[in-house]
Protein: Alanine/ornithine racemase family PLP-dependent enzyme
Organism: Alkaliphilus flagellatus
Amino acid sequence: MNPRIDISLNKLKHNTKVISDMCKEKGIQIAAVTKAFCGIPEIAQVFIDGGAKYLADSRIENLKKLNNIPVEKIMLRLPMISQAKETAEYADISLNSEIETIIALNDATEKLNKVHKIILMVDLGDLREGFFDNKELESALLILKDLKNIKVVGIGSNLTCYGGVIPNKTNLGKLVEYGETIERVLDTTLEIISGGNSSSIYLLEEDRIPERINNLRLGESLLLGRESAYGNFITNTYNDAFRLVAEIIEIKNKPSMPIGEIGMDAFGNTPIFEDKGIRKRAILAIGRQDIGSNSIEPVDEKIEVIGASSDHLIIDITDCNISYKVGDEITFNIGYGALLSLMTSEYIHKNIISY
């Protein structure tokens, strides 16, 4: 069925094993992030087979899908108080930075006769979630001491996702210091010091990650073989485990400049065009409803992506060596943002293949 994403389980398992082996050499366990493919269990299982210790997702809906895979699950996004019960039920561990939410989790977990593990998040400058200073953290720890159904097992931080701040030995070293504060106040030894996401991979490759970091939450590196600090591909990994395939529904020779007064397009933007004369243009049955504003890269390097409306992707095939016709398929490599949008779209067929 078209349009579709071809998903290679073997390539994903290979990526996971390569990166997992790299991490294990430094005493680091992987929490494999499943949100980019909406928690499809068949894909998630490949992460575990490849060496990941945990599965992690930011949506309760996806964690429910993973319930039958017998490993610990991590709730990545700070839990909503309104979902405290579901978080306690479907996540073994959650990331937290608000004491009111942790109290709600404690109450929900008590009713389930369980103990819920939490990783406290600190903000190292990226300005997304997390306690922002030691004083705020210590105040929360004094309250946490009295919560019977909550166990603080770790500390973590997020970098690059919002503010683009690059992880380095200095800010991750500060994370370790925050961890030592928790250990001192709670008189415990933390199981998990989570040094971020795929943006920390470059430090691992350069052997510059602080010693006590023993966990990374990885999505893009496993899925697309790329670290996310500088966008470099990781040696001996695949970047095409996911490929978009779309079908041509029209081919016409048309001017490269629209005819008439130019106003706003369907998304409120005023487009700008370059006059290249008459060009051979093809329309594909996929659009911005599926890929958002994310870029995609044709495997055929002679193809130029011109633009898109909600349901149509327009490409220039004038210079192609292949004589494309209506009904032919065009294959694209995709980045993380496009993958997230495409896998979320119910209009894209997910074609899981073993090779």
Notes: Residues 33 and 219 are 5 Å apart (CA to CA). The chain has two domains: 8-224, 242-353. The chain is about 30% helix and 25% strand. Residues 8-224 form a domain with the TIM Barrel fold (CATH 3.20.20.10).
